[in-house]
Amino acid sequence: MLWIEELLNEHPLLSIDLTVGDSISDFFLEQVDMALRYGKPENSSMVSFHIATMSRITCASPTYISRYGEPMHPENLREHNCLLHRKAGRLFNCWEYANHSGTYKVKVGSNRISNDTDIVRRWAVNGKGIAYRSQIDLYSDLSSGQLVQLLPDFESPSVELNLICPSREQVSPAVIAFRELLRRKVSQIVSS
């Protein structure tokens, strides 16, 4: 994440111990000061800073589209290999869409499931299927042309990105600096 480099350049006395993954951290056991997560924390004693609300995007690589075609309607996704994410035992295989004609909940199938959203993104870039992720997850690949947005005439439910701290005691000046950097950078992506 280039943003971390920017933060370290702005604050040279700051040090970072970065753990990357989609699993929900045990803040106290793993000594985590903060985590970036989609949705609100389940534990109400945690401190949550809203970073952004963003759209989910359906996309595939140009290679996948040339080989299997482009779905023109959410219902067409049933005929495609959709790359799925599993978190805490929950499989995210029901994709939601809406347009002026109505709302659609499509149960999709896949030959690939991962508990790591970056693996899902990489599979999409490599032409293995269609992904359904947040704007921030796909921004670089969409900008570079490695992925192409599908179903642009349909909206998907938005998702909230939050910076979570286990308690008020962990809300240090470094956490505030990181929060502000994230808000600024994610705002640029969401508005583009």
From TrEMBL:
Source taxon at top rank: Bacteria
Which residue intervals define the domain LysR substrate-binding in the entry?
3-185
**InterPro entries, per database record:** LysR-type_TF_proteobact-type, LysR_subst-bd
- Transmembrane stretches, by residue range? none
Q: Name one Pfam family in it.
A: LysR_substrate
Family of this protein: Belongs to the LysR transcriptional regulatory family.
Tell me the protein's name.
Substrate binding domain-containing protein
Species, as recorded: Shewanella phaeophyticola
